[in-house]
């Protein structure tokens, strides 16, 4: 009985030891698996973070590359902008006593031909829409019917500079209306339509422009179109002063070029236009005739017949640097002339009287 009990106890002890060993192995295995799982999770998180950092770096590189590309593009665009012909020649660096912003300035007494102010007046340069003054002179002197209706067509669209116009293709207006818009507001389609509907067409019209220039002694002047959009339309300040003087003799050109505003019908719309020269709306200025112009190659230009200090004058400004510089230069010239007149009066009053 005792022997059986000892054997039973030994057997039970062995079973218990086996169970414990079995449980220990399972726990160790579970702990090993758990450890591996934790390591796997940490590794996965690290990979995600690394991928995110890589993506951020990639975006930064793309942004930086985009900025550099934009900067290069901007530089190319700036480099592509043409410089005015006067600045290419360095005319803007020529000093003058009034410190004008225009590269070219010329002021002459209309009655005596006395030159009162000159700066680079002989330079032959693009003249932009000052061209339209000759366009108006040709139409006026041809004595065409100003009440005749002409139509704006696709041929009048600006193919040179790509400028826009409020006169849509198909718009009909009289020749007189087209002339008014061309001189007052520098309307390119109106000016082109005037030349296109001229007897013989635009080629004949431009030939007439050049013939008229030669007849007037404007030997430094050439025209290739009626609008001035081409930089090949060129002249000097001296020649333009001659043109202003002759155009001033035509009452119609005086009236149309100095009108403050005008309106025309385009289909069912009424289009309101204003003079491109704001000085005509200033009552302190006596302007008998004027024309403005601008393309990049010419800069901002202005010609005028004005009365200042009891004198009839012709003013020419070419390649003005800035939108309002040509007007500011005209004001400087006026102030200077009025000041000179005042000095002359004072000197006359102070001089001893004889007799």
Q: Give the name of the CATH superfamily.
A: DD-peptidase/beta-lactamase superfamily
> Could you give the order of strands across the largest sheet?
2-1-11-10-9
Instruction: List segments where confidence is low: pLDDT < 50 over at least 5 consecutive residues.
Output: 27-31, 75-79
How many independent structural domains?
A: 1
Enumerate how many helices there are, as a single number.
9
Structural shape: elongated
**SSE order in H/E notation?**
HHEEEHEEHHHEHHEEEEEH
CATH names the topology as: Beta-lactamase
The average pLDDT value, as a whole number, equals 87
Q: What's the helical proportion of residues?
A: 40-55%
CATH architecture title: 3-Layer(aba) Sandwich
- CATH class division: Alpha Beta
Alpha-carbon Rg, integer: 42 Å
Alpha-carbon distance between the termini? 178 Å
Number of strands: 11
- Structural class designation: alpha+beta
Structure description:
With 355 residues, this protein is α+β, with helices and mostly antiparallel strands. It has helices at residues 2-80, 85-88, 131-142, 175-184, 188-196, 201-215, 237-248, 251-258, 325-350; strands spanning 102-109, 115-119, 125-126, 149-151, 172-174, 234-235, 261-266, 269-274, 287-295, 299-308, 311-320. The chain is built from 9 helices and 11 strands. Helix 4 (175-184) packs across helix 5 and helix 4 (175-184) crosses helix 8 (251-258). The strands form 4 sheets. It has a 5-stranded antiparallel sheet, with helices on both faces. A two-stranded antiparallel ribbon has the order 3-6. A two-stranded antiparallel ribbon has the order 4-5. Helices cover 49% and strands 18% of the residues. The model is unreliable at 27-31 and 75-79 (pLDDT under 50). Strand 9 and strand 10 (299-308) form a beta hairpin. It has one domain (85-338): 3-Layer(aba) Sandwich (Beta-lactamase).
